[in-house]
């Protein structure tokens, strides 16, 4: 543990699982570097503060109604939080800043999607850094939304989805980071606000590493004119207790212990993605027909309008018997690190993508919304550490992809590239590695900020 720096950092995570995890990990990294940490959090989806006695927590009342808090329209929720949090957040932050008995606050570190925090920080004369929890490559695409709209790519037309985005190879129109179920204008405004308020910030922190996204990071450095700090992968340098909002079912690990090395397909689509009943059945039969062991996370709510497993075909569980294990939520980091896991069938949320890379686990990509399409295209076509399910989810296609990955020579090549990338992810955190150097740069930058 480094000497305490006598400075406090205030962190403000977006209250969604894929955003809370990296912010808590970042908090741990900065705490281990000697900073004191205060986390301001909404009462909605609040993390368990008792797991982090070394941080101060302040919970703000954002006053979401029950209907607002239970919506499946994530964009509507995020837009609303950017309105409802303004007053409570401003009050909380100014109270913290006026507490002269505490260490001085160097800066705010806010999730990029909480764009309103820039004007609050400005009004309190406090520097604001941004944590962008997704990759740099997808952020770059978000930053070109006005251009993409002008060129006619946005809003996406169904008839064009297989066409290339010629200005950003190898992306196809269907990979663009949109949320099909939400109003395009709502997304456009949220993205434009996020990008503009990021440009006004004092720097961006990324959960990525230079060797993985060099080209996107270089472009962002060139176009944003603010310091950029790729210091990931966070979870490999932070030993935080899990910030999971759902209980992780540990039976996964004892089940995995009984499976042969590199035999299991791990299937999980993160904390938000929802699929149709028809897609659920194709996944189920694809897994059953592949004859490979599988561990499948079926989160309550994964299948639109359904409770849990009531739509599994009759006899499915008996049919797959011991070969399949289904849970509501898994200890994902432990699962991916388990020697029995051969492949990760993922929605390519950024955390899942990075976690898979760090364990050298090849991916089957099935992006659902937002940055996931860009992430999946990079996995399949740029880093070439996975295979994407293109043009419709069909059980025969699933079986074919599983065979390609687990039996055929192509699978061997993909595995080798994945292990190579895993090595790079490890090296960047070594003493002179790119992320370690970037973290040193971030610390100097924070210490140089004058509020
Ligand atoms: C969301 C967006 O979907 C994603 O695209 C964006 O990059 C971040 O926010 P989410 O869909 O939940 O996140 O996916 P992901 O980014 O993969 O984060 C999920 C997190 O939950 C991961 O850290 C994963 O380890 C954890 N998890 C997932 C579990 O602990 N158990 C599980 O069973 C599944």
Task: Quickly list its features.
six-stranded parallel sheet, single chain, binds uridine-5'-diphosphate-xylopyranose, 451 residues, seven-stranded parallel sheet, globular
Draw up the topology in text:
Layout: E1 8-12, H1 17-32, E2 36-42, E3 56-60, H2 66-69, H3 74-84, H4 86-98, E4 105-111, H5 117-124, E5 128-132, H6 136-143, H7 145-150, H8 184-199, E6 204-206, H9 214-224, E7 228-230, H10 251-257, E8 264-268, H11 277-290, E9 294-297, H12 316-320, E10 324-327, H13 332-337, E11 341-346, H14 350-358, E12 363-365, H15 372-382, E13 386-388, H16 395-406, H17 409-427, H18 434-448
Parallel strand pairs: 1-2, 1-4, 2-3, 4-5, 5-6, 6-7, 8-9, 8-11, 9-10, 11-12, 12-13
Description of the structure:
With 451 residues, the chain is an alpha/beta fold. The chain is 42% helix and 13% strand. The chain has helices at residues 17-32, 66-69, 74-84, 86-98, 117-124, 136-143, 145-150, 184-199, 214-224, 251-257, 277-290, 316-320, 332-337, 350-358, 372-382, 395-406, 409-427, 434-448, and strands at 8-12, 36-42, 56-60, 105-111, 128-132, 204-206, 228-230, 264-268, 294-297, 324-327, 341-346, 363-365, 386-388. Strands 3-2-1-4-5-6-7 form a 7-stranded parallel sheet, with helices on both faces. The longest helix has 19 residues, at 409-427. The radius of gyration is 22 Å and the shape is globular. The two termini are 26 Å apart. The structure holds uridine-5'-diphosphate-xylopyranose. Uridine-5'-diphosphate-xylopyranose (UDX) is lined by residues 16-19, 21, 133-134, 244, 248, 268, 270-273, 297, 329-330, 332-333, 349-352, 355, 370-372.
């Amino acid at each position: 543990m480094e000497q305490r720096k006598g400075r406090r950092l205030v962190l403000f995570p977006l209250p969604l699982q894929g955003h809370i995890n990296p912010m808590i990990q970042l908090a741990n990294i900065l705490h281990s570097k000697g900073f004191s940490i205060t986390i301001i959090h909404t009462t909605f989806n609040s993390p368990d503060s008792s797991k982090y006695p070394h941080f101060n927590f302040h919970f703000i009342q954002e006053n979401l109604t029950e209907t607002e808090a239970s919506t499946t329209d994530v964009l509507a929720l995020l837009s609303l939080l950017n309105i409802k949090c303004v007053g409570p957040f401003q009050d909380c932050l100014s109270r913290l800043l006026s507490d002269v008995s505490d260490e001085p606050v160097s800066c705010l570190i806010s999730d990029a999607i909480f764009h309103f925090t820039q004007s609050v920080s400005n009004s309190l004369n406090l520097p604001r850094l941004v944590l962008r929890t997704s990759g740099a490559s997808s952020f770059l695409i978000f930053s070109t939304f006005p251009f993409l709209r002008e060129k006619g790519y946005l809003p996406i037309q169904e008839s064009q989805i297989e066409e290339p985005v010629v200005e950003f190879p190898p992306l196809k129109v269907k990979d663009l980071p949109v949320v099909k179920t939400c109003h395009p204008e709502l997304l456009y405004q949220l993205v434009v606000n996020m990008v503009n308020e990021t440009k006004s910030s004092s720097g961006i922190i990324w959960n990525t590493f230079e060797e993985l996204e060099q080209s996107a990071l270089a472009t962002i450095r060139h176009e944003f004119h603010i310091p950029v700090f790729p210091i990931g992968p966070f979870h490999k340098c932070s030993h935080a207790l899990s910030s999971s909002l759902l209980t992780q079912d540990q039976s996964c690990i004892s089940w995995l212990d009984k499976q042969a090395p590199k035999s299991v397909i791990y299937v999980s689509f993160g904390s938000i993605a929802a699929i149709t009943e028809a897609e659920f059945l194709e996944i189920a039969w694809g897994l059953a027909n592949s004859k490979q062991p599988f561990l499948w996370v079926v989160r309550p709510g994964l299948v639109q309008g359904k409770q849990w497993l009531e739509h599994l075909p009759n006899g499915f569980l008996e049919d797959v018997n011991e070969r399949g294990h289904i849970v509501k939520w898994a200890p994902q980091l432990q699962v991916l690190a388990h020697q029995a896991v051969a492949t990760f069938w993922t929605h390519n949320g950024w955390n899942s993508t990075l976690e898979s890379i760090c364990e050298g686990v090849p991916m089957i990509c099935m992006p659902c919304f937002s940055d996931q399409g860009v992430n999946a295209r990079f996995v399949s076509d740029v880093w070439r550490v996975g295979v994407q399910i293109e043009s419709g989810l069909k059980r025969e296609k699933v079986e074919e992809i599983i065979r390609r990955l687990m039996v055929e020579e192509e699978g061997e090549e993909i595995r080798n590239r994945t292990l190579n990338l895993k090595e790079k992810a490890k090296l960047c955190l070594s003493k002179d590695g790119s992320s370690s150097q970037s973290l040193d740069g971030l610390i100097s930058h924070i210490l140089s900020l004058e509020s």
